[in-house]
Design goal:
The complex is a heterodimer of chains A (about 280) and B (about 270). Chain A is an alpha/beta fold. Helix content of chain A is about 30%, strand content about 20%. The chains are: A alpha/beta (about 280), B mainly alpha (about 270). Bound molecules: adenosine-5'-triphosphate (ATP) and magnesium ion.
């Protein structure tokens, strides 16, 4: 008989079951959210970009992915949500193994729980910040009402404003995306990911093309949200300071393979820079 | 000479041409000369036509101003406008899904995109007067045939340019919405259309302008509107009526172009 700790009434349980029901959830390292095993990815008939990558990421971790240009970081992130199909190996996300046969619906369900932020924010320029944030709801049932803020349900508008407040842009809600600065646009993109209440944030160079102050601001926003909501965060960056200060774990990719996987507190900027030379 | 030394490396004034190019040039010139000599009016014919042209213009003046006739012209003009507007709006509405189905990388069914592209090309390449003849023969004389002609013409025009605008839309927001798990239709409405809208509105205004101009001539083959009145005037040698109609058409087309220009400038 399946028992759940929340529903069970301890009074009606046998002693052994009480122990089971009261056992704390395995929080120490959390559940495994992402498991890549020997993933190979080649575009077309080209040389493999990823050449046997195995990673597992657990609930609540913050992971920075680093590596030289063309190392395959973006490719890896896209493979995680099925925007790319792995050529070989297995990709398991939230316990579901992605397969070539997955339909759109299945991928949509997976993406439902992921907040993906691209290197380029990918906002729709001629729409307001508020509409762009609401787009985060598009994959859901009745999602067409997220197409524009004028037709969105009141609760969704409220959620979108909350997300904008979190990234400190509530006063820009009515501004068109093309009137925002690069850093503000990137923060709107974060709000768009935030409104989906994802289990997992994936961000591809969220601080690239931002000035140092704005870059720190965006990364701090991410780190705070991940901390507060206990959301898992995986991001790529070319800034070694960002990797060390905003992630607890650093993974380096080079020539399609993992060449480093360590706790950031054990690492120095110098160690990381060595990866890019020779 | 110093000048000579400097220009030595410059390309020659006239590039040498191959025998093939020279032959092609001669053939082309022959075609042009033969065409002009066979179908362009000769000086003699022009000289003979001039007095007749003068007499025709004289018979056209002054334009007819009989109130009953003016009223009829007015009614026909309004009908012309109705044909243009109804045809354009219906055509645009039909163009939207067709453009979506045919736009590369945006269509929900990639396999059939070429079919829709082909259909649009077919609609566009057959001239509107030919469509008008087809519809007059199938639905009979009158405005309905004209409206159907404009619909087909508009689909040929908007179907192509809407699809191009959709293909040119910024790819990054589309990818972002796809990563969110949005359906193809949501990607279209959420990212593609907002980006392509200015270009599409522009296309739609051009389509309307084009429709007004072609709905004027459609009447010549019996598809309703002011053109029909113009044909009657010429057939019955009522040249003063004809000049009134020509002036009315001129005014309408000019006003139309002015208005759409203003609208375009405002939307830009
Ligand atoms: N869609 C594609 N088609 C073909 N090749 C691609 C495609 N996307 C990426 N590549 C190739 O895959 C390799 C890895 O690219 P990727 O974008 O994953 O690198 P990256 O680590 O994100 O680099 P950067 O630091 O510059 O963002 C590159 O050599 C690139 O040319
Ligand atoms: Mg990249």
């Amino acid at each position: 008989m399946p028992l759940s700790a929340t529903k069970a009434d301890p009074g009606k349980l046998k002693p052994a079951e009480i122990v089971d029901a009261l056992r704390p959830a395995p929080t120490a390292r959390g559940e495994c959210l992402i498991a890549l095993s020997d993933v190979v990815k080649a575009y077309g008939n080209g040389k493999p970009v990823l050449n046997g990558v195995s990673i597992s990421v657990h609930e609540g971790e913050t992971v920075a992915l680093i590596g030289p240009n063309g190392a395959g970081k973006s490719t890896l992130l896209k493979t995680l949500i099925g925007l790319n199909e792995a050529s070989a190996g297995s990709v398991t996300v939230f316990g579901d193994t992605l397969s070539r046969r997955d339909g759109r619906r299945q991928k949509a369900r997976l993406r439902q729980q992921i907040g993906f932020v691209f290197q380029h924010h990918g906002l729709v320029m001629r729409l307001s910040a508020l509409s762009n944030v609401l787009h985060g709801k598009l994959g859901q049932k009745g999602g067409w009402r997220a197409l524009h803020h004028s037709i969105a349900p009141t609760e969704w508008r409220a959620e979108a404003m909350t997300a904008l407040t979190t990234v400190r842009l509530a006063d820009k809600a009515g501004d068109r995306a093309d009137q925002l600065s690069g850093g503000q646009a990137q923060r709107v993109a974060i709000a768009r990911a935030l409104i989906r209440k994802p289990l997992l944030f994936i961000a591809d160079e969220p601080s690239a093309s931002l000035d140092p102050a704005a870059g720190h601001e965006v990364m701090q926003t991410f780190a705070d949200i991940a901390e507060k909501t206990k959301t898992t965060l995986v991001f790529t960056t070319h800034d070694m300071d960002h990797a060390l200060s905003y992630a607890r774990r650093v993974i380096a990719l080079k020539n399609g393979r993992i060449c480093l996987d360590a706790e950031s507190r054990d690492l120095r900027t110098r160690d990381l820079e060595a990866i890019f030379h020779g | 000479m110093a000048d000579h030394a400097i220009t030595r490396d410059a390309p020659p004034r006239i590039r040498s041409i191959s025998a093939l190019q020279f032959t092609a040039f001669v053939v082309l010139a022959a075609i042009v000369i033969a065409s002009i000599s066979q179908v362009a009016p000769s000086g003699e014919r022009l000289a003979n036509a001039a007095p007749r042209m003068g007499r025709l213009v004289a018979r056209m003046l002054p334009p007819e101003t009989d109130p009953a006739f003016l009223w009829r012209v007015m009614e026909r003009l309004i009908e012309t406008f109705q044909i243009a507007i109804a045809g354009t709006v219906i055509g645009i509405v039909i163009s939207l899904p067709i453009a979506w189905m045919s736009a590369r990388r945006i269509t929900p069914v990639a396999a059939t995109a070429f079919l829709f592209k082909g259909l649009v090309s077919f609609f566009r390449t057959v001239p509107d007067l030919v469509w008008a003849l087809v519809f007059v023969a199938s639905v009979g004389l009158g405005a309905a045939a004209g409206t159907m002609t404009i619909i087909v013409d508009t689909i040929g025009f908007c179907g192509r340019f809407f699809a191009e605008a959709m293909e040119d839309a910024d790819k990054k927001p589309q990818e972002a919405l796809e990563a969110i798990g949005a359906s193809r239709f949501s990607v279209l409405c959420g990212a593609v259309i907002p980006d392509a809208l200015p270009s599409m509105v522009n296309t739609a205004l051009f389509a309307l302008e084009k429709a007004v101009r072609s709905s004027v001539v459609l009447g010549l083959v019996g598809a309703g509107g002011i053109g029909q009145e113009l044909k009657v005037a010429f057939d019955l040698f009522q040249y003063r009526n004809a000049s009134t109609i020509i002036i009315a058409i001129f005014i309408v087309v000019i006003v139309m172009e002015y208005l759409t220009d203003r609208l375009r400038a405002k939307l830009a």
